[in-house]
Amino acid sequence: MTVLKTSLRNFFAHKGRMALSAVAVLLSVAFVCGTLVFTDTMNTTFDNLFQATSSDVTVSSKDSTDNGETTSRTGKPPVLPASVLGEVRKAEGVKSAEGTVFSTSVTVVDAKLDKLSPSSGAPTIVGGWNSNDARTMKITSGGAPKGPDQVMVDADTVDKHHLKLGDEISMITVVGTHRAHVSGIADFTVTNPGAAIFYLDTKTAQQTLVGQTGVYTNVNVTAAQGVTDDQLKKNVTAAVGHGYKVQTAKEVADANQKELQSFLDVMKYAMLGFAGIAFLVGIFLIVNTFSMLVAQRTREIGLMRAVGSSRRQVNQSVLIEALLLGVVGSVLGVGAGVGIAVGLMKLMGNMGMHLSTDDLTVAWTTPVIGLVLGVVVTVLAAYLPARRAGKISPMAALRDAGTPADVKAGVVRAVIGLLLTGAGGASLYVAATADAAKGGSAWLGLGVVLTLIGFVVIGPLLAGGMVRVLGAIMLRVFGPVGRMAERNALRNPRRTGATGAALMIGLALVACLSVVGSSMVASATDQLDKTVGTDFIIDSGRTGIITPQAVKAVKSVPELARVTEYRLVDVSLTTPDGRVPDNKVINAADPTFAQDLRTKTVSGSLADAYKPDSMSVSEGFAKDHGIKLGSAVTVNFKDGTTGKLTVRAITSDEVVIDKGAMYASIATVAKYVPAAKMPKDLMVFAMAKDGQQDAAYKALKSALHKYPDYTVRDQTDYKKALKDQIGQMLNMIYGLLALAIIVAVLGVVNTLALSVVERTREIGLMRAIGLSRRQLRRMIRLESVVIAVFGALLGLGLGIGWGAAAQKLLALQGLKVLEIPWPTITYVFIGSAFVGLFAALVPAFRAGRMNVLNAIATD
């Protein structure tokens, strides 16, 4: 009980000094809990949606995916004949059955040709209005569609694009362009995560999406009273046979949830990973805080030992303080985590994904995980300072000798740090020289971990040398004040090393990712310059197909010398060795594609692969299956017949674009796949006539103006898009890493604040002999800057090394250009100096306000 009282007294006596450590715990716990609440809420939202929109049993084509998705490479949804509906209605246990048709391979535009698709990546769905949809949609204005010129739109899309009743919209499909006027507005009775939905009457939907009536994508079946979904599924299957996909509501919902879960898991574990980095950085802050508090209470600890307290009790006293800090920070963090989750929901709402707070889900495991993590991390971080406090002898403490210097421990630490760093460097070298990406990745991960730990352990040794160098470069120009700042940073190398290491971690990751991202862009740009021999690339965008009307519009541009169509065909292969590899894709194109993409071959010419009944395979595939030039491969086309194609070219694996692809001509594929099943173009390539590049570019843009989903890019545009895409990904990662950097800044602030308290008497004496407030503040700011720059140098150097090793692995995938983004590295380095200045503002201000006489009188 005495130990508990002592711990409580010390905790509340130093609550101001504990505050920043508590904030570090709070931020880390909040990020973890916010991530869990956000992903759980998304799961709840989609669970409710899938359950509400699924009929008791759904019958669909065998070609549709497990989750009922109806897109296909043909641009038309897989359909069922109308006769299936009659068979289903005759099945035992069926209360009602209704056929419907819908598709997500549709571009919808308003009268100004502005896209009405969601910006969040959610689907655009066009379908026939049916009673199953009526269960989850409430018509709030106008009425349901009753003819070919009417369409009903969901309320979210209406609000976002400012539509109103009577407005004309157009639906662009492979069948053609269908125009209709808004006849009604319907609102979801459950949360709509962001899909844009357009309802036609069933007959019009059939004509618009499929090009014929009398077919359905789904038959929605409702069970009679007392009939379970599983029993209904058996009855319906017996009625229609096994040629169709029959699923219960739960199976459809589970399939949808499974597909969503893969995306949510990636996002969840990525965010938790960054939270883990913030926890790691927070450990340094907590270790420094308790180390300095123990040092400042040396005499107090000696008195406790002198009056009978044991080492164990002193140890327990410090750990109890850490426990209190962990509990307070974690409890506040759990609450803040819910706030972060709500903020993320609002952010997603601004991006087009609507998540309602009505679905806010806080599982009981979330606060438990947050509390356990926060408390355990805090107590573990405080263990070493607590153990060190217990080792202080009573007489040494009463003489104010503090913790005894352990030269041997310092030597052992330096040796261990050097060994770890050396082992990590060797692992990175092995990774950089690896012949296989899989094995190299393991060595890379090991090297990153070992060098990181090594730099942390060896930090005090590095601090002693690097701070002197930085002092000579940066601080000496400030005269005596600069020299004092340098000595302050060198006074406790262990503390300086730990403070710099906290900043090092975040900046190392920033530097590593910057090197990898820049190298990827440079490598891809280099590959584009070397291999792409066309002027323009037309991309299909969100729909994944380019309609025949759009291709015709491209071919009508007179300034073009050639146009190449490019599509993907699903196949299964039987190789000469008798093996049947997993389902494959053949990249079918016009023969001119051999000029548009100058792919390197190890045998044969790519142009020969476009001859009748010919194909190419990749180098790795050929080695795995014993394929040589002239080998015959049996190709079973998914939507057609089987044929034997002769291998006329073997492409190199040392490429980035279309690595591992198999090529054949569209004419060869058309021989085995009927026109109705033929995939539509994924991309189209165009070459301008000599000297007419600018005119052709403008003409292409004009020709495809009616098709806003398709993007016309020249090589400059394509490189910029690639750079922007990787840049956006990196910016998102940098934003998540900002949490760790913020915690590191708090560590610098806390270290300086406690250092000022520790040196109160010294500061008073310096003021007494003539040091001005301005000089004192400058000294503290310079000390902070040199610590921040020290951490930045460690982090940037380490990160560049990691990034260079990672790029060597990427070179095995064809990304062979190493590019170090020196402007970004420079900005980060300069930014770290400003971080040091910012971190010193409050400690310097407080030091300057000290009363000189009171400071001198401090014990």
From TrEMBL:
The keyword Nucleus appears for this protein: no
Positions of the ABC3 transporter permease C-terminal domain: 274-394, 736-851
One Gene Ontology CC term in the entry: plasma membrane
Residue ranges constituting the MacB-like periplasmic core domain according to the UniProt record: 19-238, 499-700
Domain of life: Bacteria
Signal peptide: none
A Pfam family hit: FtsX
Transmembrane segments: 269-295, 318-344, 364-386, 407-430, 442-475, 496-517, 732-757, 782-805, 825-845
Statement: the UniProt record of this protein carries the keyword Transmembrane helix: yes
Region (Disordered): 57-80
Membrane topology type: Multi-pass membrane protein
Major place of residence: membrane
Keywords, sorted A to Z: Cell membrane, Membrane, Transmembrane, Transmembrane helix
Residue ranges that the Swiss-Prot or TrEMBL entry lists as coiled coil: none
Localization terms from the record: Cell membrane
Any one Gene Ontology molecular-function term assigned to this protein's record: transmembrane transporter activity
Family listed: Belongs to the ABC-4 integral membrane protein family.
Protein name: ABC transporter permease
Native source organism of the sequence: Streptomyces colonosanans
High-level lineage: Bacteria, Bacillati, Actinomycetota, Actinomycetes, Kitasatosporales
